[in-house]
Amino acid sequence: MPQGSPSDQELVERVQKGDKRAFDLLVIKYQYKVCGLISRYVNDQHEVMDVAQESFIKAYRAIHSFRGDSAFYTWLYRIAVNTAKNYLMSRSRRPAGNDVELDNDESFTIYEQLSDVASPDANLNRNRLEAAIYSVIKTLPEELKSAITLREFDGMSYEDIAQVMDCPVGTVRSRIFRAREAIEQHIRPYLDGGE
């Protein structure tokens, strides 16, 4: 954040005092992260934008209840996740997978085996591995999928995920462990060089 830029808490306090432009700054700061989060649940880009807009509207309407017990983005992410889930339930759709690059994620240590190899065979195996990872993530129960994507793709702390998912940190750790276990079991043949 550039020097002199107001913190999230300062912006929230300004919004709570009636400064609508301060909320615009929060929207600008978080719109891409919120859209990225929602796109893990909603496939159509136009619908992602609609759900994101609805999330920000809900956040604006509820901002007077924000007390700063958590970081603003954690509070906003929770609203966005709930809005996306409500959208899916109202449309009777299942959450879609995502297309986030996994090679930027240090937590998937089993994935690192392929990261330094540039041969065509290795690239093909890497593409198959990515497809296998996305495939298994799509099949995970909702609570496991949410926990693993918030941790691995958004880089959120266990504590922040616990606030977003409204559950204890121990539950978050368990869900992430179970998700990683399912992913590793599913992709083991790709790491062993088979198909």
Automatic annotation (TrEMBL):
InterPro entries: RNA_pol_sigma-70-like, RNA_pol_sigma-70_dom, RNA_pol_sigma70_r2, RNA_pol_sigma70_r4_t2, RNA_pol_sigma70_RpoE, RNA_pol_sigma_r2, RNA_pol_sigma_r3/r4-like, WH-like_DNA-bd_sf. Residues 27-94 form the RNA polymerase sigma-70 region domain. The keyword NAD does not apply. The keyword Transcription regulation applies. Coiled coil: none annotated. Residues 132-182 form the RNA polymerase sigma factor 70 region 4 type domain. It comes from the Bacteria. Keywords: Sigma factor, Transcription, Transcription regulation. Belongs to the sigma-70 factor family. ECF subfamily. PANTHER family: ECF RNA POLYMERASE SIGMA-E FACTOR (PTHR43133:SF53), RNA POLYMERASE ECF-TYPE SIGMA FACTO (PTHR43133). NCBIfam families: RpoE_Sigma70, sigma70-ECF. This is RNA polymerase sigma factor RpoE. It comes from Marinomonas phaeophyticola. The gene is rpoE.
